[in-house]
Design brief:
single chain, alpha+beta, 222 residues, 2 domains, Alpha-Beta Plaits, four-stranded antiparallel β-sheet, 6 helices
């Protein structure tokens, strides 16, 4: 896809759209092969260019869908570079994480940490519990769902995965022969209960960067 021009966007908006691209790439890879851990950077670039072309489009609907006041962005995974691991605090190798040291001395754990360039981002023990939670984070996007499952195979790891998020706005993308189809969904209303109002815009983005608005549906915008 043609490279999109993001020079007129603020650093904050570019950062948000790059995060969208990482989230969309993780979702795509995981849906195609839930065991694949690598996220191709070319896929992230493709999705980023696609959404920036929508941002730059002159369609009034594109301007509306990407209005910063609506703040429509991909919802999951919360962090396409990190995930949480629940561990048994009686395991001897946990002492390293207590002391904020990433490498543990446990060969299985350390091999995965090295393989995916993971660092210990946060460690906390739960009150009146033998379970601690460690948040691990990589320097690049990974299939956090697949990598988390690898940690679940290790003794003393009770669970591993990403936070489950419901409601809110979202962004999705589908592949077609000659274009990508983006859906931007704005959730509003009673969002603590899952957002009881929703409005969607649909766009086709072609190889040359041209954008076609193909319809919208849902509740009237507030």
């Amino acid at each position: 896809m043609a490279q999109a021009n993001d020079q007129d966007l603020s650093n904050e908006r570019k950062t948000k759209y790059r995060l969208d691209a990482e989230r969309l790439a993780v979702r795509f890879i995981n849906s195609r092969d839930s065991t694949q851990t690598e996220i191709p950077s070319a896929l992230e670039t493709l999705f980023y260019n696609g959404v920036i072309h929508i941002v730059n489009a002159t369609h009034p609907e594109a301007e509306e869908a990407t209005n910063p006041d609506y703040d429509v962005h991909a919802l999951t995974p919360p962090d396409p570079r990190g995930f949480e691991v629940s561990v048994d605090t009686t395991a001897s190798w946990i002492d390293a994480w207590r002391e904020s040291t990433t490498q543990t001395g446990n060969e299985e754990v350390d091999n995965l940490l090295e393989q995916f360039d993971l660092s210990l981002f946060e460690y906390r023990e739960l009150e009146n519990s033998s379970i601690a939670r460690a948040f691990l984070r990589s320097e690049y996007a990974i299939n956090v769902y697949a990598v988390a499952r690898l940690f679940e195979e290790i003794k003393d790891v009770e669970a591993s995965g990403t936070e489950v998020i419901g409601g809110g706005s979202d962004m999705t993308v589908l592949f077609f022969d000659d274009h990508l189809r983006y859906t931007l969904e704005y959730g509003y209303g009673d969002c603590p209960s899952g957002c009881n109002n929703r409005h969607k815009w649909n766009f086709r983005v072609f190889e040359d960067g041209s954008v076609e608005f193909i319809g919208e549906q849902g509740d009237p915008l507030p």
